[in-house]
Amino acid sequence: MEFNVRRLAADAGTFLSRAVQFTEEKFGQAEKTELDAHLETLLSRAESTKHWTEKIMKQTEVLLQPNPNVRMEEFLYEMLDKKVPMRANNHELLGESMIDSGHEFGPGTAYGSALIKCGETEKLLGSAEKELIQSSAINFLTPFRNYIEGDFKTISKERKLLQNKRLDLDAAKNRLKKARVADARSAELNSSPPLAEEYVAHFSYMLSILHVRWLKLWAEEVQQAETELRIAQSEFDRQAEITRLLLEGISSTHAHHSRCLNDFVDAQAAYYAQCYQYMVNLQKQLGSFPSTFSNNNQPAGSSSASISVPTAQPATSLPTPPPSQTSPALNELRSTSGTRKARVLYDYDAASSSELSLLADEVITVSSVPGMDSDWLMGQRGNQKGKVPITYLELLN
Hints:
alpha+beta, Substrate Binding Domain Of Dnak, Chain:A, Domain 2, five-stranded antiparallel β-sheet, 5 strands, AH/BAR_dom_sf, coiled coil, mitochondrion outer membrane, BAR_dom, golgi apparatus
């Protein structure tokens, strides 16, 4: 018990000394030991790393889960150390609605079958999105969060300890300075004391004696103050070295975060490539529906427009028509119903038996058929004939 009381008194004295030193520094009444420029640079870089890591984490979470209520719910489950319940995302909910409505209209109808196909693709997109979120959380968000909650907390703890050691050092310097001033004034007064009969007349001398004694009691003797200063300087230097070593590890943190960033980009690239492939397959499926599907509002055998969507290219969603398509040559081809040579700009997979598949850079013969959609021409390669989209062709002179 006695040891605890002494320890408490010592801690209280240290805290009071630091508070006094900090206050005097703020009012410009005490000198402050400045850290070296290299250490200040490292501290600034650590703060910048922490700030931007938190901001990137927050924006990534917003990207992966735009709903703030869901993010808050997941955060609460994480704080309570409970498993987040599985829930369908927006793509999956849309897919389920499309599938249910497709079955309601009838899988044998054109519209019902198209809804089911779209719904199945939407559910695939939802599964791919969940894989992206899971991969990003493990390979990207978790390492960033570990730095904030682990490494940077250690850096902050050591930095705060360095600040306390600096306050102790400056307080020791201040005590030594005051002790030396008190010792000098005491020596000066002792060297030329006034006569005994003049003691009463020299009241200021009595006050000086009391003041010097009080200073010596408060600041301690010069020798003890010097010893405390050496100890404080040693502890400050040691703590500065520990903090510097930790801060220099920020370079390794940046390298690790760069690898995590590559993993995140790879996950996004795989996700978007997967989504693109799903949509291309869906386009082909919708374009392959026969034109004589029976519908609820049409009798079987009646003509209905088939769905035909040109396959999107990886580099561009829709090919830009070349200048030759708007030239007089195209108008002439349509007005005369003649034939022209055309170079194929992109690969094209026929969506139905009435269309002609194309290979990039091949040359085919095209002609305009009366009544045909203005976005299509009739193409011929040897004995093969079929419709071809104008946006995939460049008419040759």
